[in-house]
User: Which sequence fits this backbone?
């Protein structure tokens, strides 16, 4: 990884010096750029986080927002959509339009991310998983990661069998060493079987893992984000993969989350974000029928006029993609990620 970052760093800085990066950045003015984040935490809390690609160190996020405030037109996503639809609002000299979005609804979105955005005069869009907020308990994947990292291979396989989950041939890794393959299989499992597996793990562990460090927003914090000028959107009720759901479950996830958010904020909810980015034509039409004006995927790219507002593209901004070979935040790498130059290198 260090060698790969060293090569990428050299390419990035070469592109900056040659003018290639500036040319790529000039193309951003032809559409809408949507950035995807999940969490912002102090650097010391990022080191042992089970999903390193989902957590941005606080200082690095602050530097990114500082650069965006100086270089781009950053507003909540719903406020930028009318200009995107017309696609004729500006020439190449106008600043690129950028939306900063957060998925899931962790408490640090309110405590850190929103505060940093406001420090630079910016406002973001926060897609909230409403059951996470309403229950005040873990999202399933956090719960799974915390349980599995302290569970032996033998115990995890026994719980897997107890939950009547088909044991895939690839499920051979010790979860204490490589939890990713277990989570990937759980993600595709039926929700009831997944819950049975997690319940079995909790019995062997003597109880659920602590919530500390994984707290959701409160309802008051959701309302406060809206009051402070940020946009609040839906990320479903329980974070399921929409294509897996029966029709009644699908409608419940889409409409139920919207009703709760509108009750908490007292405002219309315009936007939806597909959990895990998973969507098919049926789920897209269900989002449309539920009354959402737009929906975000996790596919990267620039949103040009005329595209489907229910399949908006987003760039996933991870620490690994915006760091130099030593792991420190690199402004040039951030700019390269923003203008899709890294898609060329990849």
Assistant:
């Amino acid at each position: 990884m260090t060698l790969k970052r060293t090569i990428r760093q050299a390419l990035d800085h070469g592109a900056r010096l040659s003018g290639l990066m500036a040319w790529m950045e000039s193309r951003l003015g032809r559409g809408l750029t949507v950035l995807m984040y999940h969490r912002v935490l102090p650097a010391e809390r990022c080191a042992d986080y089970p999903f390193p690609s989902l957590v941005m160190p606080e200082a690095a996020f602050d530097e990114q927002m500082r650069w965006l405030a100086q270089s781009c037109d950053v507003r909540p996503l719903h406020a930028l959509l009318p200009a995107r639809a017309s696609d004729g609002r500006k020439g190449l000299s106008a600043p690129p339009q950028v939306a900063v979005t957060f998925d899931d609804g962790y408490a640090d979105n309110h405590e850190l991310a929103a505060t940093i955005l406001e420090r630079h005069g910016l406002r973001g869009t926060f897609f909230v998983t409403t059951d996470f907020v309403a229950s005040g308990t873990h999202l399933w994947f956090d719960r799974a990661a915390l349980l599995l990292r302290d569970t032996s291979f033998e115990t995890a396989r026994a719980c897997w069998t107890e939950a009547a989950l088909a044991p895939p041939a690839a499920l051979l890794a010790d979860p204490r060493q490589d939890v990713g393959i277990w989570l990937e299989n759980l993600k595709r499992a039926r929700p009831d079987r997944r819950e049975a597996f997690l319940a079995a793990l909790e019995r062997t562990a003597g109880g659920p893992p602590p919530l500390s460090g994984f707290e959701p927003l409160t309802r008051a914090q959701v309302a406060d984000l809206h009051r402070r000028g940020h946009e609040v959107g839906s990320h479903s009720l329980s974070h399921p993969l929409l294509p897996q759901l029966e029709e009644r479950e699908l409608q419940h996830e889409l409409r139920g989350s919207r009703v709760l958010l509108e009750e908490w904020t007292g405002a219309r909810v315009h936007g939806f974000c597909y959990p895990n980015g998973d969507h098919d034509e049926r789920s897209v039409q269900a989002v449309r029928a539920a009354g959402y004006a737009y929906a975000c995927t996790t596919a990267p790219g620039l949103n040009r006029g005329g595209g489907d507002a229910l399949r908006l593209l987003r760039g996933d901004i991870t620490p690994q993609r915006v760091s130099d070979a030593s792991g420190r935040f690199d402004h040039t790498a951030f700019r390269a990620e923003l203008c899709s130059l890294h898609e060329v290198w990849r």
Notes: The two ends are 13 Å apart (CA to CA). The chain has two domains: 2-136+213-345, 140-205. The chain is about 45% helix and 10% strand.
